[in-house]
Amino acid sequence: MKIKPPRQAQKWSYFSHRESIGKASSSLGIRSSKNTHINCGSSARMAAFQENWCDQWQHSRFFYLARAALNPLTSLCKKLFLAIGEWHDRLAAKELSPGNPIQPTVAENAFVQMIMMFRKTFIQDLVLMMELHPCYTIWQHSIFSDPAYLSFKRQVHIIA
């Protein structure tokens, strides 16, 4: 097997950049007349949200909640990002499917581990986010009426 050397970085023309972003956006059903600057407004809004969230978080009672202090049940975590457990098992077995071997990369393993950690963190943060933004439609998801979640929520309120 011949290994190719990495490509040298080349300057990307404005037209190529615009065209690539346009194709990616349209394949996702996103329409914009500002393809090369499509994320500028959202980036500014996200930065403002993050700054506001950090201020609220640091000056409130939820500063205490340490992630290691209270973990949601594994069974509850498994209800978010359902396929990640299957991918974890596939990478551990080094098989994409039975009889179809794969060689997992460090990046693949790290990504799966990150998603597994994220779902736990997501559940921990959602308990407190519900109080800040009670009108969000996401709270109608079935996980928020799950007995395991309701029990976890009560425990968070006890220690918060």
From TrEMBL:
Which GO terms fall under molecular function for this chain's record?
Answer: DNA binding
Specify the superkingdom: Eukaryota
* Residues covered by the Ndc10 domain: 61-149
**Per its UniProt record, what InterPro entries does this chain match?**
Ndc10_dom2_sf, NDC10_II
Gene3D superfamilies (alphabetical)? Centromere DNA-binding protein complex CBF3 subunit, domain 2
State the name under which the record lists this protein. Answer: Ndc10 domain-containing protein
Species of origin: Absidia glauca (Pin mould)
Q: What is the lineage of its organism?
A: Eukaryota, Fungi, Fungi incertae sedis, Mucoromycota, Mucoromycotina
